[in-house]
Amino acid sequence: MAVQVYGSNHVVIEVDDAQKAMEFYADVFNLEMLRGGEGAAWCKLGEHQFLAIFEVEELRPDRTKHFGIMVRDQAQVGEVREKITQKYGLQVEPGFGCDFRDPWGNRIQVVDLHDESLVWLLPYSEVQKVGIKFGSE
What we know:
Elements: E1 10-15, H1 18-29, E2 33-37, E3 40-45, E4 49-55, E5 67-71, H2 74-87, E6 99-101, E7 107-112, H3 124-130
Parallel strand pairs: 1-4, 5-7
Antiparallel strand pairs: 2-3, 3-4, 6-7
């Protein structure tokens, strides 16, 4: 029998202050915190995934490794871009719509539902709310 992958369960990032990272991700992405304490935190990332945040003594940002967060539309991508640049003073990676490094060096790519390679991950009702049409619909 062939393995069937249904998606990703979780993403893990490293930070030097889990509490500040929880606050950052709750503020920028309105993520719901599930639990935290003693140098670690977990928050809901979509309907079926979570983001795990772990404190480490030495941060080692990667060059190209990253994870993507999907938001509803370009207006929300713009909200994220504005918040990270204006409130947090972070830079958007050149040549990308909304790729940035969080305050701990973790690279995040923000896309919206109109990226057709990602749209199938959502419940169809969410796709309908945005107005995306498929084929002969």
